[in-house]
């Protein structure tokens, strides 16, 4: 229904961004809200409208390739929109596609909500059907700290966003001490945290 929205990002939360266009603020769920920055001029967000009996959600992606992978993932039994967003949160579209094509179940089960059965189903359903999906740019930009925002606040925002994606308090506690020794903006903490979470297990 909507291919993309171009507008000003006015709000970034752990779960969604708000994009203002034509006097309307659109609430858009994204894999990593902190990959977007409020007040950065007009931005283009590729969208997917998810409709269920009890909910209607607008989901947004930085690239058309990320959106395409999301759409492929939600066709798999056992993978809902929340699970697909968690898989895409690290901005590693190429690595996810590579894991599916190489039947790397160990990589896939590290995402929240993906067990061995679901990982196997993803591989069975999508292997050989993802040509052209992994050509987009990385979700993450260089993670220089943003002026005026303390590292602790950035870390807390990243932890909230990771919890919203489905990572447990126990999983996040394992990596928090390591992250507290580093200095990033929120997006940078998300990138490091996801890299550490995917190395665990």
From TrEMBL:
Gene Ontology molecular function: ATP binding; four-way junction DNA binding; four-way junction helicase activity
Subcellular localization, as worded in the UniProt entry: Cytoplasm
A single cellular component GO annotation: cytoplasm
Matches recorded under InterPro entries: DNA_helicase_Holl-junc_RuvA_I, Hlx-hairpin-Hlx_DNA-bd_motif, NA-bd_OB-fold, RuvA, RuvA_2-like, RuvA_C, RuvA_C_sf
A single GO BP: DNA recombination
Residue ranges, annotated region (Domain III): 145-201
Keyword set, alphabetical order: ATP-binding, Cytoplasm, DNA damage, DNA recombination, DNA repair, DNA-binding, Helicase, Hydrolase, Nucleotide-binding
Predominant localisation class: cytoplasm
Residue stretches making up the Helix-hairpin-helix DNA-binding motif class domain: 71-90, 106-125
Function: The RuvA-RuvB-RuvC complex processes Holliday junction (HJ) DNA during genetic recombination and DNA repair, while the RuvA-RuvB complex plays an important role in the rescue of blocked DNA replication forks via replication fork reversal (RFR). RuvA specifically binds to HJ cruciform DNA, conferring on it an open structure. The RuvB hexamer acts as an ATP-dependent pump, pulling dsDNA into and through the RuvAB complex. HJ branch migration allows RuvC to scan DNA until it finds its consensus sequence, where it cleaves and resolves the cruciform DNA.
Family affiliation: Belongs to the RuvA family.
Subunit comment: Homotetramer. Forms an RuvA(8)-RuvB(12)-Holliday junction (HJ) complex. HJ DNA is sandwiched between 2 RuvA tetramers; dsDNA enters through RuvA and exits via RuvB. An RuvB hexamer assembles on each DNA strand where it exits the tetramer. Each RuvB hexamer is contacted by two RuvA subunits (via domain III) on 2 adjacent RuvB subunits; this complex drives branch migration. In the full resolvosome a probable DNA-RuvA(4)-RuvB(12)-RuvC(2) complex forms which resolves the HJ.
Domain notes: Has three domains with a flexible linker between the domains II and III and assumes an 'L' shape. Domain III is highly mobile and contacts RuvB.
Name of the protein in its database record: Holliday junction branch migration complex subunit RuvA
Organism expressing this protein natively: Edaphobacillus lindanitolerans
């Amino acid at each position: 229904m909507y291919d993309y929205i171009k507008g000003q990002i006015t709000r970034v939360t752990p779960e969604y961004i708000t994009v203002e266009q034509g006097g309307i603020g659109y609430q858009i769920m994204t894999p990593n809200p902190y990959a977007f920055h409020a007040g950065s001029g007009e931005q283009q967000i590729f969208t997917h409208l998810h409709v269920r009996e009890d909910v209607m959600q607008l989901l947004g992606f930085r690239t058309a390739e990320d959106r395409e992978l999301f759409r492929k993932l939600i066709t798999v039994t056992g993978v809902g929109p929340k699970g697909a967003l968690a898989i895409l949160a690290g901005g590693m579209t190429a690595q996810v596609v590579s894991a599916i094509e190489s039947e790397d179940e160990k990589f896939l089960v590290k995402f929240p909500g993906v067990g061995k059965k679901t990982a196997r189903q993803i591989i069975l359903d999508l292997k050989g059907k993802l040509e052209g999906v992994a050509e987009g740019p990385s979700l993450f930009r260089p993670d220089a700290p943003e002026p005026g925002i303390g590292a602790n606040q950035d870390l807390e925002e990243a932890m909230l966003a990771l919890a919203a994606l489905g990572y447990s308090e126990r999983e996040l506690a394992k990596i928090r001490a390591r992250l507290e020794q580093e200095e990033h903006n929120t997006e940078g903490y998300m990138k490091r945290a996801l890299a550490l979470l995917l190395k665990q297990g």
